[in-house]
Amino acid sequence: MRIAIVGFGSVGRGVAKVLIEKRSYLRNLIGDYRVVAVTDSKGGVYDENGLDLRKVLEIKRRKGSLPEEITSIEVVRDLDFDVCIEVTPTNVESGEPGLTHIRECLKRGIDVVTSNKGPLVVAFRELMDLAEKNDARLMFEATVGGAMPVIKLAKVDLAGNEIISVKGILNGTCNYILSRMEKELLPYEMILEEAKELGIAERDPTYDVEGIDAGAKLVIIANALMGLNAKFEDVERVGISDLTPEAFKVALENGYTIRLIAEANREYLRVSPRLIPLNHPLAIYGTLNALEIETDLAGEVFVIGKGAGSVETASAIISDLICLKSLRCS
Amino acid sequence: MINLTMVVELEDKPGQLIKVLEPISKLGGNVVSVTHRRDEVTPLGRIPVRIAVQIDESKMDRLLREIEGRGIIVRSFNRVRHAVATSLLLIGHIIHTDLRETVDAIDKTGFAEVVEMRIVMPELNKPSTAFIKVSAVNEEKLKESVEILKGVCKSKGIKVIEPL
Ligand SMILES: NC(=O)c1ccc[n+]([C@@H]2O[C@H](COP(=O)([O-])OP(=O)(O)OC[C@H]3O[C@@H](n4cnc5c(N)ncnc54)[C@H](OP(=O)(O)O)[C@@H]3O)[C@@H](O)[C@H]2O)c1
């Protein structure tokens, strides 16, 4: 298997580390593999006989950018390889640059594994159709719950079930802020500052706290698992920035807490703060993600796990990669 | 459909309960639960039995007549107005008049009412929080009343936190 890694940030480097460290283990599952290209926003390196990933990681660490031997576009348009790991930044409006990368690969019959929500939110059906037409596969476990299994859990392990609804916590940053507000009864702004200092929230936290990230994941889940054709605009979205310590206090006195819940069913897609009974499995703490999947045969299935992180997200990408090679997943 | 609870006094011998259940099913009602209160036997040795029933509103009076017509003592017969309830949190500049209007919007529906309300006002000019409990005759009406509440709150710029 010849692999190209497009995007070499937190997730791309996490994947590279796993591919190095678990080589002999993974070889048993996917056969011999080599990474023939790695790119970032500035440039990229390639070697048809396989790059030394340790060296590539070292260059990226020392110089911040990869040398300008090849661009991402050249990789996806011209280079010969089997699987593209597309891990560039998410843009839920245009889907770019990932959308172009994924389209180009699928057109050429190259399989794609991605953690990038943008292209799937913007063009889910188009990309799935393109993949099918060209006998390629597009895998995207890492887009929705980080390390927490959702897509393959529903499609493979719950095969034969109809997914009636999903409800869950799909953004670890919000969940961290809300669980701290619950415990400390401090204002939102203070807890947000704390989260920024810990590196849990971005300097501009809009994407997380306004429910954009959770909404994007919800659209992907609804389309992939419930057969909907939802767009990002279809998500009713309310963020967490208006929540007050008093709200938590009153909720707690009545046996509830508040969490940002993403919910999809046949009637609506919604991301909003909701009252959760304190003993409900969705009343989780810290940066965890969780999802309750309601099915027709299996009833309710509940998953909980890490929703982000370099190696954690790589876990979902690696599992997709193995899936590409296995009959069970096809 | 409405919800009823009744307590009937049955003699402690076989074939008594059926006298109550028969008219319920004849009138298209559903028996939700039956509990015998054996520890509350009456001085005349009868056993109080509590029966919860769902039945069409128009058949309510006839049901009572039919049961009594079979010689059964009906100790109580009540319509349960509100079978389902939900709690919500309102956050915003909720002032007194707003609150009355908001509560009225629910109460005047006839199928739902605000049964509990707690309001916390922090410092001046900061948003206050209200915890309110709404009950309604059934799930569908409850949903409808939550939608009404959301509409009123939206027009007043009050944020509603719904339950899961
Ligand atoms: N981090 C997580 O825990 C996590 C979890 C789930 C999903 N995701 C998703 O996974 C993707 C990657 O996340 P990340 O945390 O690794 O982001 P990141 O650290 O910001 O890395 C993004 C990488 O993409 C590169 N890039 C930008 N434009 C490019 C282009 N046109 N061609 C090639 N490379 C380009 C960047 O280059 P430079 O290095 O030159 O800036 C960087 O290496 C995102 O879509 C994110 O939403 C992340």
Order of helices and strands of chain A: EHHEEHHEHEHEHHEHHHHEHEEEEH
Backbone structural class of chain B: alpha+beta
* Helix share bin of chain A: 40-55%
What is the CATH homologous superfamily assignment of the largest domain in chain A?
Answer: NAD(P)-binding Rossmann-like Domain
Which percent range describes the beta-strand content of chain B? 35-45%
Distance, first to last CA of chain B: 26 Å
Second-tier CATH architecture of the largest domain in chain A: 3-Layer(aba) Sandwich
Rounded Rg of chain B: 21 Å
Number of helices of chain A: 14
Assembly category: heterodimer
Which kinds of small molecule does this entry bind, naming each only once?
A: NADP nicotinamide-adenine-dinucleotide phosphate
> Using CB atoms under 8 Å apart, which protein chain pair has the greatest interface?
A-B, 23 and 18 residues
Structural domain count of chain A: 2
| Number of DSSP-assigned strands of chain A | 12
Question: How would a textbook summarize the main sheet of chain B?
Answer: 4 strands, antiparallel
- For the record, the count of structural domains of chain B works out to 2
Radius of gyration of chain A: 20 Å
Mean pLDDT of chain A: 96
Query: How much beta of chain A, percentage-wise?
Result: 15-25%
